[in-house]
Backbone:
């Protein structure tokens, strides 16, 4: 059974950093294309970043150069390192694999 559990969100000041984690179970993370998707208050879902099974990374223009996606195969965990955070990064961040979603973790960037 596939399960995704996000953690690591919180309140941070502009310019700060957070690292999100997505603990996966029921499948081998290294074999699959996995993504981070976010939803800002009152807005729709926005794709943020993806990591392919082969290790290629992809980023939305809005986060390129500030966010880094990675995974630890042994820990079955996907990460999103977020640096130089901006208020517009405020959102619920979800981990995604095909039709499977985590519960999300709230990130708030505010002074």
Residues:
């Amino acid at each position: 059974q596939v399960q995704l559990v996000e953690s690591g969100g919180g309140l941070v000041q502009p310019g700060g950093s957070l690292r999100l984690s997505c603990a996966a179970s029921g499948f081998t993370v290294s074999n699959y294309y996995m993504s981070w998707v976010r939803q800002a208050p009152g807005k729709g879902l926005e794709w943020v970043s993806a990591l392919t099974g082969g290790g290629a990374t992809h980023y939305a223009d809005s986060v390129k150069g500030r966010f880094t996606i990675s995974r630890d195969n042994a820990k079955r965990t996907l990460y999103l390192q977020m640096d130089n955070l901006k208020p517009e990064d405020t959102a619920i961040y979800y981990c995604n694999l095909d039709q499977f979603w985590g519960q999300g973790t709230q990130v708030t960037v505010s002074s």
